[in-house]
From TrEMBL:
It comes from Strigops habroptila (Kakapo). Coiled coil: none annotated. This is Tripartite motif containing 65. Residues 15-63 form the RING-type domain. Keywords: Immunity, Innate immunity, Metal-binding, Zinc, Zinc-finger.
Length: 514
């Protein structure tokens, strides 16, 4: 039982507002002490009262008023006494002269910790047993510690460290492989070929070289980021191992059981699996068909198989009429053999978008509300999705637009169907859609609500290349020559659907190949 001196000391160390030990005690000009947060909240409530303008700031103890809010400074001496009381040194004066460490006392009831509650996974005192954990499963400290098997924790840390070091070595090897890859040789071959065909292929020369360098830089950057991340995980794992070894050396059962499980915390917050990335050039720009087959064959001669486009189907080569009907077909088949024939989805089309009979052409008719038979979640903006969606592989499609003020791109199926304030379209305004806006004087590449201005020649025939596995989405201009307008590099996690937005009076046609 506590002595009268101990009780009086406890009363002097209690805040009269919260009735608990002082937390950051401060002293008012009248001499009374309070918790800094308690007196600040008290005055904040006073300001909301109608009579505050007359009374001003007052002391909760003596009701003394202050015209201005007193400056609250920490009472260092009183704070030191409170810290001694919290550590058990002041409270030990009224006990049986035994010194009890604060870690051995219940933080709620200040009683010695005696049992371990398996339901709440914490050490409890006798008061907790009666009031809070009466129906819970309680065991002795020694019994619970014997089940924890601290040795397996250290073994797991060592095993994880070995796996991380192995992943770091793989990342380093991948980085060296990329540096020694055939990129330099590929640039040399392409440069030599363009030297022979400079007059006919001048527009493609530096674009191709820059494309290869960009792919190499992106691959090296990703591997470098993975290596840095693995290094950080290794440092964190080393810290966990040291703490686990220190815990093994702790002889006190209570202290051991109150420490959270390192394995659970580390597994949830720091688990990382390194996935290597291969550097493979793709979609290398090739000379346009208008220059003839001979320049095309000379340019692609001796190129590595990883970048050389596939040869066209022999049936198409033996059908000259097909070549004359679609002048770009042989060249685009070589560049992008995975052409897809798309169709619009009437269920998603805005009510002002009129679709053709085969759903291959969409036109914005503001004067007529289109009444398709299909019912579904239509877009509020002037947008329409395609029926086809792609979640792997490489895909290419072409579109023909009537004029500018058109947006084309790809999106997850969860694209918002409502109009966003301040925008006429939703394509590229979130993290799940990518779009290219065709304006009268330039292009705008949209993603996550940010746009990038692109000064390129405007044309009505556009090509879209989607390499899902590599996270690459590219837009091309098609005409007398073929050029890259813009490329997005990202990580796709859901199926992607082609999507379009049309201004008033505009039309978009999906190009098909037989």
């Amino acid at each position: 039982m506590a002595s009268p001196i101990s009780q009086k000391l406890e009363e002097k160390l209690v805040c009269s507002i919260c009735l608990e030990l002082f937390r950051v005690p401060v002293t008012l000009p009248c001499g009374h002490n309070f918790c800094k947060r308690c007196i600040s909240n008290h005055w904040q409530k006073q300001k909301q009262e109608p009579t505050w303008a007359e009374s001003g700031y007052t002391c909760p103890e003596c009701r003394r008023g202050f015209n201005q809010c007193p400056e609250l400074e920490k009472n260092v001496t009183l704070c030191s006494v409170v810290e001694l009381a919290q550590d058990g040194e002041a409270w030990a004066l009224g006990t049986e002269r035994c010194k009890v460490a604060s870690s051995e006392l219940c933080p709620q009831h200040r009683r010695p910790l005696e049992l371990y509650c398996k339901d709440e996974q914490r050490c409890i005192c006798c008061v907790c047993t009666v009031w809070q954990c009466q129906q819970h499963q309680r065991v002795l400290f020694e019994e619970e510690r014997s089940k924890r098997q601290v040795g397996t924790m250290v073994h797991w840390c060592l095993t994880s460290q070995a796996l991380l070091e192995e992943s770091m070595e793989k990342a380093q090897e991948e980085s060296e492989r990329i540096k020694q890859d055939s990129s330099e040789g590929l640039k040399s071959v392409i440069l030599s070929k363009f030297a022979l065909l400079r007059k006919a292929l001048e527009d493609f020369q530096w674009q191709t070289v820059a494309r290869i360098e960009q792919e190499q830089a992106v691959a090296l950057g990703r591997v470098g980021e993975d290596w840095t991340l693995l290094k950080d995980r290794l440092d964190i794992l080393g810290q966990h191992r040291e703490r686990a070894q220190q815990l093994l050396a702790c002889p006190d059962n209570r202290t051991f059981l109150q420490v959270p499980s390192y394995r659970t915390t580390y597994t949830q917050n720091h688990r990382m699996v390194w996935v290597g990335r291969d550097l493979k050039a793709h979609s290398v720009p090739t000379p346009c068909h208008g220059q003839g087959h001979l320049p095309l064959e000379l340019l692609l001669e001796d190129l590595p198989s990883c970048v050389a486009p596939k040869a066209p189907d022999p049936v198409d080569q033996g059908n000259p009429s097909a070549h004359r009907a679609t002048p770009k077909a042989p060249f685009m088949l070589l560049l992008f053999p995975d052409h897809r024939n798309l169709t619009f989805d009437p269920k998603t089309a805005n009510k002002y978008l009129e679709l053709s009979k085969g759903n291959r052409k969409a036109k914005h008719s503001p004067s007529t509300i289109c009444r398709q038979q299909e019912q579904g979640p239509r877009f509020e903006p002037w947008q329409v999705l395609c029926t086809q969606g792609y979640s792997h592989g490489h895909h290419y499609w072409e579109v023909k637009i009537s004029s500018h003020s058109v947006v084309l791109g790809v999106t997850y199926h969860s694209l918002c169907q409502e109009r966003k304030q301040g925008h006429k379209f939703n394509i590229g305004l979130d993290g799940g859609s990518w779009g290219l806006q065709v304006r009268e004087d330039c292009y705008l590449a949209w993603h996550k609500g940010r746009s990038e201005k692109i000064q390129e020649q405007l044309c009505r025939n556009l090509g879209v290349s989607l390499d899902y596995g590599k996270g690459l989405l590219s837009f091309y201009g098609l005409g007398e020559r073929t050029w890259l307008i813009h490329s997005f590099h990202s990580v796709f996690t859901e199926p992607l659907y082609p999507v379009f937005w049309l201004c008033e009076g505009r039309a978009v046609e999906l190009c098909w190949r037989d």
